[in-house]
Amino acid sequence: MPCSDDPLARLHGRSALEDTLEMLWKKDGSPSKRRPRCGNRELDLYVFFESVRSFGGILKVHENRLMQPIAELLRLSLTATSSGYSLRLIYLKWLKPYEEQLERAIDDSYERINNFCESKRQWPDCVWSKDANVPKKRSRWKQNGAKVCSEDAHQVEEHLTEAEKAAVLSRLSVNEMEPEEQVEFEYLQDSPDLFLDIRNHILRVWYRDVSHRTSCSDILSTVPKRYHDLTKDIFIFLVRQGLINFGFLGKNQFPIRSREQMEKAPHVVIIGAGISGLAAARQLCSVGVRVSIFEARDRLGGRIHTKTSSNNEPVELGAMLITGVQQNPLNTLCRQLNAVLEVVQEDCPLYDVNGCLVPKDLDMLAEDIFNDALEETTKMRKLYKDKRHISLGSVLKRLLEEKIMLFRQNSDIKDSTIFTTLKRLAQWHIANLEYACAADLEHVSLFDWDQDDPWALEGEHAIVKGGFSQLVEGLARGFKKAWQDFDNWKHDSCIFLRHEVKAINWSSKQKNEDRGRKSFSKKESVLVKVQTPNANMREVLCDCVLITVPLGVLKERTISIYPQLPSWKQEAIDSLGFGGLNKVCLVFEEVFWKHSVFGALTDSPNERGEFYIFWDMTKCSGQTPVLVTMICEPFVGRNELADDHVCVKRAMNVLRRIFPNAPEPKESFVTRWSSDQYAGGAYSFISINSTSKTYDAMAENVGDVLYFAGEATNGRYPTTCAGAFLSGLREAGKIMKHLHLDTLLLENIQKKRKVSAFGH
Ligand SMILES: Cc1cc2nc3c(=O)[nH]c(=O)nc-3n(C[C@H](O)[C@H](O)[C@H](O)COP(=O)(O)OP(=O)(O)OC[C@H]3O[C@@H](n4cnc5c(N)ncnc54)[C@H](O)[C@@H]3O)c2cc1C
After folding, report:
1. pLDDT tens for residues 544-580?
2. Closest to 242 (Cα-Cα) out of 321, 157, 171
3. How far is the CA of 112 from the centre of ligand 1 (A)?
4. To the nearest 10°, the Cα dihedral for 476, 477, 478, 482?
5. Residues of the signal sequence (predicted)?
């Protein structure tokens, strides 16, 4: 059974090789203990031995000139690979004499752990409801930064092993160390395969059952002894990175601490109980930190807001889609909370201004023209490289006009109305992109608007049956909720609703104004001023603060920070874009529409983003028919000034162009996220004054006391709930590291019951 494809088998095989070699070398008294090197690095003897074996032995490798692919498996550079000769010599000297014993030892080890590797579970993709729609493929559907996965991606996944799938689900490279991993485990740069096997094995165990904490002792019981220390380090790293043991892990997730212990525990203040703040709070509490979450609103969730209709059914006023379910950490959270996901149909038929459906071929033609133009904007970057402030809108709109004109010139279609419809369709696609960016495309950077594309999460989009708020409520489980009662707050982790943070004073840490980590000595050195529900001001001391308020709030500077933020941070806050998006949710007696999602064209470019799309959210509510329509930039402001009934009337006018007999809604909800003082808009975008690096600056901590999370701090997954959630985990990990909580982490790990992952 040469060259196993299972990471645990490889770890055992590697260990067997090492044990056997050490034993035989000792017996021989030769060769020296210094490991062979090639291309300036130590050779991975296990990978070398097993690759030669899989190619039929060193003779065959030599005869068939197979040293090149072996060198690639050994990750040797081209110059090193040219020395296939030296590799052969190394093999003959170091491994050939022991081939027989090594083969036997490695095969025995594979045999021993076969059970674990064989017990591959059926992968639970997510908790689908039985009648979930099967989505159709659409070439480009950019909603909140996520692209729909290609059919190819599904096929590739079919070929992945369980451990590889776990790495993919964790958004990690299967075969390469990620940059952060290289930094943390620099000493393993010569043997990344060892690191990757341990990492992928741990991830696989975690994904086998995400409803429980994966314990380090369980993992250790599967891994050969010689790798225990390394496994512990990698385990701690994965917890800190929020890659395992995140989310809702049952009622007993937080360690039980006495009052005294809690008083002595590190104290972190989190500003904002949105999904990023709650994700961080849960992580920190799991390692014994005392957390106080101050939330200005009287509810949890921030921009996740599931309102209850008069029928007691959920209506989403904020986020509603889980974008890219497969790799989405919120999918894991849904599984932990038994929340059901409903896939959203991607096919979006469009209705023209006369109320008739746009013919499919014309719809597809417009989509192709739009996608071509969008693609071409990326090529224009070279042309405009000296004009960094040029907008996507200016270039895209010109390209679209040119392309439609060109199509007209080259086509023999006589009916001129087709071309007017094409123009309307182009406007619809612009509006759709403005929805995704929460911005007028005239304000979006040509250069970096799609910088997050390489990280787009795979999978369809889905809604949470029963409402998105279930996820935030789940994350908040186990925390005490306090309104006015400060009496017990020193002994517990609490969420304080209707507590608006007004000021942060970190003057005693002033010297640490620089970026990055500094040594931490003085406890509780940051002062947070909070306004309580009865308008009193309270002062709270803590070790560090995690700020998760929306970028819109940071831009307004409603929280005074003393000393003021360093210029690099303030510049990032000022320059990153933050735009609007609103919803009009219409509740009806019965369904009169025909599609789950449908679009409406308009004659006027000055109305393109007003009620241009309608989502059937009935599946979220369960029974009550609900249609949700959008108001996008640049039309958000003028609609926020209008009364609710005016917005509803405008939305109904558009709907009645399609369904003339549409009844009056029995209930409606209109959002105003931009004028909401605790949001200031919907989500971030890369403005003409910012770049992808601005997100990195947003994420960076100030000194060792001010940390920042939230969707606008996540450059890979900005704008989304997933991005916000991951940013919370990221910052919790940084704080754990800064507060030196690794021992607490291990203590927590060691206390868990010892059940072998082998099952005995
Ligand atoms: C209309 C709309 C539709 C959206 N659609 C989707 C979607 O379909 N899918 C998706 O993934 N994302 C969507 N988003 C984006 C998503 O909602 C956000 O990215 C995510 O919820 C942000 O979470 P957060 O924790 O970063 O911030 P928030 O949820 O905004 O949390 C920050 C918290 O800080 C609080 N706060 C503010 N100031 C103070 C203060 N001074 N003191 C104390 N607390 C304070 C706020 O009240 C808030 O609760 C949508 C957003 C909007 C507005």
Report:
1. 999 999 999 999 999 999 999 999 999 999 999 999 9
2. 171
3. 50
4. 50
5. none
Q: How confident is the model at residue 39 (pLDDT cuts 50, 70, 90)?
A: confident
**Closest ligand 1 atom, residue 274 Cα:** 31
Ligand 1 shell residues, CB under 6 Å: 144, 271-277, 294-297, 302-304, 318-321, 323, 500-501, 548-550, 553, 559, 581, 583, 671, 673, 678-679, 682-683, 710-711, 719-722, 724
Please name the residue whose Cα sits nearest to atom 12 of ligand 1.
720
Three-state SS for 70-120 is HHHHCCCCHHHHCCHHHHHHHHHHHHHHHHHHHHHHHHHHHHHCHHHHHCC
Among positive and negative, which fits the CA dihedral 54, 56, 58, 61?
negative
% residues pLDDT > 70 (the chain): 87
Is the ipTM reported for this complex over the cut 0.90? yes
The Cα 166–Cα 6 span in angstroms is: 12
Asked: is 151-249 a CATH 1.10.10.10 domain? The reply is yes
Residue 152 CB-density burial (10 A; 0-12 exposed, 13-18 middle, 19+ buried): exposed
What is residue 82's predicted lDDT score, i.e. its pLDDT? 62
Identify the weakest region by mean pLDDT among 516-520, 528-532, 656-660.
516-520
Mean pLDDT of 711-720: 97
Higher confidence at residue 72 or residue 626? 626
**Tens of pLDDT, residues 193-203:** 999 999 999 99
Candidates 682, 690, 678; CA nearest to 574 is: 690
**What gap in Å lies between CA 129 and CA 131, rounded to an integer?**
6
103 is in an annotated binding site: no
* Closest protein CA for atom 4 of ligand 1: 319
Phi, psi of 170 (to 5 degrees): -85, 10
Mutate to test the pocket of ligand 1, among 322, 615, 721, 731 (most ligand atoms within 8 A of CB): 721
Ligand 1 mean position, distance from CA 212 (Å): 28
Strand, coil or helix: what is 560? Answer: strand
Residue 394 predicted with pLDDT over 90: yes
Delimit the domains of the chain by residue range.
7-118, 151-249, 267-302+495-575+695-740, 357-445
The pLDDT of residue 752 is 44
Residue type, 313: E
- 295 annotated among ligand-binding-site residues: yes
What is the DSSP annotation of 420-482? HHHHHHHHHHHHHHHHHHTS-GGGBBTTTTTTTGGGPPPS--EEETT-THHHHHHHHTTSEEE
Distance 429 CA to ligand 1 centre (A): 25
Alpha-carbon distances of 395 from 274, 363, 401, 423, 427, rounded to whole Å? 36, 22, 10, 16, 14
- DSSP state at residue 162: H
* CA separation, residue 469 to residues 124, 273, 339, 692, 745 (Å): 23, 12, 11, 30, 29
- Which amino acid type is present at position 669? F
Q: Is 501 annotated as a binding residue?
A: yes
Surface-to-core class of residue 367, CB atoms within 10 Å of its CB (0-12 exposed, 13-18 middle, 19+ buried) = buried
Q: List the one residue out of 668, 602, 606, 675 whose CA is nearest residue 637.
A: 675
Fold of 267-302+495-575+695-740: FAD/NAD(P)-binding domain (3.50.50)
Q: Does 296 count as an annotated binding residue?
A: yes
Residue 1: pLDDT over 70? no
Q: How far is the centre of ligand 1, averaged over its atoms, from the C-alpha of 303 (Å)?
A: 3
| Structural fold of domain 7-118 | DNA polymerase; domain 1 (1.10.150)
Q: Which residue is associated with the tokens 């496994």?
A: 231
- Residue 13 pLDDT > 60, yes or no? yes
| Predicted confidence (pLDDT) at residue 466 exceeds the cutoff of 80 | yes
